[in-house]
Design brief:
The complex is a heterodimer. Chain A has helices spanning 41-49, 91-101, 106-120, 135-147, 165-182, 193-199, 217-222, 227-232; strands at residues 3-12, 15-25, 30-34, 56-61, 64-65, 76-79, 153-157, 186-190, 202-207, 210-215, 239-242, 252-255, 260-277, 280-287, 290-296, 305-310, 314-317, 320-321. In chain A, strand 13 (260-277) and strand 14 (280-287) form a beta hairpin. In chain A, helix 3 (106-120) packs across helix 4 (135-147). Chain A is built from eight helices and 18 strands. Chain A is globular, with a radius of gyration of 23 Å. Chain A is of the alpha+beta class. Chain B is mainly α. Chain B has two domains: 1-47, no CATH class; 57-217 and 244-260, Orthogonal Bundle (MetI-like fold). Chain B has helices at 2-27, 49-56, 58-91, 94-106, 112-125, 132-156, 160-168, 173-181, 186-201, 205-210, 217-226, 230-250, 257-260. In chain B, 36% of the residues are buried. Classes of the chains: A alpha+beta, B mainly alpha.
């Protein structure tokens, strides 16, 4: 179902946590809300769940205004960061709980629990207590409980952040597969830009209570609307130099490491540290007092003087991308 | 180290000696205890006659049952009121909840005798004087704040997101309480019940003010002792401690500081 946010505002005392959030999320879309910790991502998700009430603004799901509907009356599923499994119940009862609350016939509950358990590969642990299973299994149980019924939209609050790095990559692929299979509207919150880029159909960057930019991952990477986004997105932040270095007056120029070629051209910098990622070497270096990140296949040592040339760049004025 | 053991040994003797005397009185022939000029501290002629004759008199069973009824009723009423009160307080902001909790405990600073007499007057008008139910309500006055304090702590220790999850899963307030929250408050409920039960079990002031004629066991023991029926008093006292010992051992693991402190942190 489509989920539409209209000018959502939320204050805690005098602190503006959400300062006018508007966006239309399409049916079947994997929509990721990305932002650093403490920027109100979880608050926004709680507003969308109905747990918190916005101070103003509207939330419309499938044409219906549900802004003031409590969560128990909304048809929404949510996965919390710590999974929030009911510790007094078995895995099976946890997954069945949302169906039980909706007075689903017993047989139907049974079938649905078995179905999602098979889908997530947790059929074997259905009768265990949730306190004795591993973190990865707990994450699957939480996900199973969310997808066992057919909600209008799904909310996921950093569901992978408690997993170790390897498990996270696996779980990410699985999550994407399940979302496509269900054709569900997934709204996913994370602070991990890598996760956002690999999962999302569209990413919304939340900063200072507003969506600073909303777009496809590639768009955000190639055409960040502001300097802030440019520095937040990407494994390494975008490089910035005063425009006059490249013959552009009154602006700043930004370029990604891979938009510059090392060992060519006439600009020079001094390598300060080297970071290996796969078979690439990311060179953190100093160009006339500006910190830059360049990338090369060849290895360099700290203190080496290297030449580089910027092949592609974006122009920013007052921190905002110029057309 | 050695000295502390000595101290502990002294404390044990100090507290258990009266109990020992009680047991001695109960099982020794009165010839060597109550009626002796120099009572023996050792069992000389063990007998069950004392207990038998005391417990056979109808004056024992009725007060004992009344005590059981009152204590259990106090425990039940207290839990029934303290669960919603504790839940509500745990969901309020601290700036409101803590002053309320403090005020609740202030009610216990008033002596029972001050509160008891006006209550007795009101109960006479309400036809609740000299009833087990009336006494239970009055005793709940003391136990409810304690139980509320314990249970608000227990509810506070349950993560908020667990309840939020239940809401998202479609559970209304009653289902959230019955399926998720209350099953997780077991220890707190046990502690609250036990404290209420035990308080009522040996409560004296309200009992003598509100149920003076056919009273509970503590009052009966008091009248037996003061009116010369010493042996019956001894026998009753002994039986009186038994349920306390049983309950304490059964629920001992819940009676640790962490449950009673109510999970409140600085």
């Amino acid at each position: 179902m489509t989920v539409e946010l209209v000018e959502i505002r939320k204050y805690y005392g005098t602190k503006r946590v959400l300062d006018g959030i508007s966006e239309k999320i399409e049916s079947g879309e994997f929509f990721v809300i990305l932002g650093p910790s403490g920027e109100g991502k979880s608050t926004l998700l709680k507003v969308m769940a109905g747990i918190e009430r916005p101070d103003s603004g509207k939330m419309i799901v499938d044409g219906q205004d549900i802004t003031y509907q409590p969560p128990e009356r909304r048809n929404v599923a949510m996965v919390f960061q710590n999974y929030a499994l009911y510790p007094n119940m078995s895995v099976r009862d946890n997954i069945a709980f949302p169906l039980k609350m909706r007075r689903t016939p017993k047989k139907e509950i049974e079938e649905n629990v078995e179905r999602v358990a098979a889908l997530l590969g947790i059929g074997e642990i259905l009768d265990k207590r949730v306190t004795v299973i591993s973190g990865g299994q707990q994450q699957r149980v939480a996900l199973a409980r969310a997808i066992v019924r057919n909600p209008s939209y799904y909310l996921l609050d950093e569901p992978l952040s408690n997993l170790d790095a390897r498990m996270r990559t696996v779980a990410r692929g699985e999550l994407k597969r399940i979302q496509k299979e269900l054709r569900g509207t997934f709204i996913y919150v994370t602070h991990d830009q890598k996760e956002a880029m690999s999962l999302a159909d569209r990413v919304a960057v939340l900063h200072a209570g507003k969506f600073e930019q909303v777009g496809k991952p590639k768009e955000l990477y190639d055409y960040p609307r502001t300097k802030w986004v440019a520095e937040f997105i990407g494994d390494f932040p975008m490089n910035f130099l005063p425009g006059k270095v490249l013959g552009e007056e009154g602006v700043e120029v930004g370029f990604r490491p891979e938009w510059a070629a090392v060992n060519e051209g006439r600009m020079e910098c001094v390598v300060e540290s080297v970071e290996a990622v796969g078979d690439s070497r990311y060179l953190l270096c100093d160009h006339e007092g500006h910190r830059l990140t360049l990338v090369s296949r060849n290895n360099y040592d700290v203190g080496d003087k290297i030449k580089f040339e910027v092949n592609d760049f974006r122009k920013f004025k007052d921190g905002v991308l110029m057309d | 180290m050695k000295w502390s053991y000595l101290g502990a040994a002294f404390a044990v003797v100090y507290f258990l000696f009266p109990l020992y005397i009680l047991v001695l009185l109960a099982f020794n022939s009165p010839r060597y205890t109550l009626f002796a000029k120099f009572p023996s501290l050792l069992p000389i002629q063990l007998t069950l006659n004392n207990l038998e004759s005391a417990l056979q008199g109808s004056s024992f069973v009725d007060p004992f049952v009344r005590s059981l009824e009152t204590a259990t009723l106090v425990g039940v009423i207290t839990l029934a009121l303290a669960v919603p009160a504790g839940y509500g307080l745990s969901r309020l902001p601290r700036s409101i909840a803590y002053p309320v909790l403090t005020l609740l405990l202030v009610t216990n600073m008033m002596p029972a005798i001050v509160v008891g007499i006006p209550i007795a007057v009101e109960f006479v008008k309400l036809h609740m004087f000299e009833t087990v139910q009336g006494l239970s309500l009055a005793q709940t006055l003391v136990t409810l704040p304690l139980a509320t304090f314990i249970l608000q702590g227990t509810f506070s220790s349950i993560p908020r997101d667990l309840e939020n999850q239940a809401r998202v899963d479609g559970a209304d307030l009653l289902h959230r309480l019955s399926s998720v929250l209350i099953p997780l408050t077991g220890p707190g409920m046990a502690a609250a019940f036990l404290i209420s039960w035990m308080f009522s079990w040996d409560e004296f002031t309200y009992a003598i003010l509100l149920l003076p004629y056919h009273s509970t066991l503590p009052v009966t023991i008091y009248t037996d002792v003061t009116r010369g029926n010493l042996l019956a008093g001894v026998a009753f006292s002994l039986v009186f401690t038994l349920p306390v010992i049983v309950l304490t051992f059964a629920l001992q693991k819940y009676l640790k500081g962490e449950y009673l402190s109510g999970g409140i942190k600085g």
